[in-house]
Amino acid sequence: MTDDTDPTDWTDPETFRAALDRAETREKGNYFEAFAEGDRIEHEPGIRLSRAGNERWMAQTLNHDPAFWRTDAAAERGYDEPPIHPDYLLAATMGPSVEDLSEKGGYFLGRTDVRYRTDAVYPGTELRVDSTVIETKASGSRPEYGIVTWETTGRDAETGDALVSYRRTNMIPRRDPDESVETDGGQTAGEQPDTDADPRLPDELLTPDGECFEDFRTALDDAEGRDAAVAYRHERGRTIDDALLAGLPLATLNTAKQHHDAAAMADSPSGESVVYGDVTRSIALAHARSDERTFRELGYDDERFHDFVTAGDTIYGFTRVLGASETPTIDVPSGVDATDTAGEVRFQHVAFNQNEEPVYSGTRTALIEMRD
Ligand SMILES: CC(C)(COP(=O)(O)OP(=O)(O)OC[C@H]1O[C@@H](n2cnc3c(N)ncnc32)[C@H](O)[C@@H]1OP(=O)(O)O)[C@@H](O)C(=O)NCCC(=O)NCCSC(=O)C[C@](C)(O)C(=O)O
């Protein structure tokens, strides 16, 4: 029956439920079996980096550095105009890749080798995103899932120039899991990882006296030869609300159901939607940046997402200073000249919730301004 003479009332609730039961679902996303090492995927969606999108991301995550908001502050920092924020660029690169890579579900396990390839990206830039499958492997703990690592690059669509690249690892459901094996669906918030085999903290946790490169270096020098670390917490928190939960991932075209399909997530171990990892980390990094004079972001490594973040949780930040060097130890994006202006500082940042549980950790390398 294909025409208007069809006598069936398809919207009658009982009939409709029967139709849903029998109808095939046209699926989105890819299962683990779709990925083979070496495959290159050009992601169909692209995104235009608008000033409005940038400001929305920065405002909601507390990234309030004036250089990204005011032309005079941008000029002082060496920009032509307030540029696209590095966290927004990263999330806007990840977003268009989700449909092909991780929409099927399974959690974002981590990311490393995040590197900015060019100094400034300005509003109006259109992004194209591509990924290469680096590694696929079975999950020993969750046979229903595989673990996939991709290298993803966000490019200027007009020139093809790489703007940012990174390696990310996700758990991806298998199409044909071995049903004899009991699993938790791979969506279980983990026990808190034992991040340090020796739980003993140093006797002293030192805080830098100021926000400049020299303050971080002096604090590290003070810690040298003592049972001390340079480590401190940031005061601000940010409670997860609707603006963050579904609003920001969808604004970057991230179609992962974890963030906007509450009905699907009701059956998962979290029982509800979970926050996009890039939102969680951007909030924690914003807290840290509010206590330093950032000149440029250079890169991030060893990023991990330790536990679910859900609506009503509050994200705080903790920072450990790992090193400071006048000469950068990792590649500085083309166009950046920081000589006598800024030095490199390496941090470990931890995002934690209101119960003081870590939910994200990662290292960050940034250029921090020297004193005038
Ligand atoms: C992830 C959970 C389930 C692990 O829970 P656990 O602690 O019980 O498990 P584990 O033993 O630490 O790790 C499980 C497996 O993953 C591996 N693994 C672990 N980390 C890595 C890594 N970095 N690189 C490579 N492999 C890794 C690890 O080796 C192990 O392998 P095995 O199964 O063979 O034993 C748990 O910690 C959890 O629930 N965390 C929260 C996850 C989360 O909320 N992520 C952010 C939100 S989801 C998201 O943003 C989505 C996105 C961006 O939109 C989108 O992908 O599309």
From TrEMBL:
A family per Pfam: MC_hydratase
InterPro entries per UniProt: HotDog_dom_sf (IPR029069), MC_hydratase (IPR048274), MC_hydratase_acr (IPR045672), MCH/BMMD (IPR052342)
Annotated region described as Disordered, given as residue ranges: 170-202
Molecular-function annotations in GO: lyase activity
Cross-referenced Gene3D superfamilies: Hotdog Thioesterase (3.10.129.10)
Protein name: Acyl dehydratase
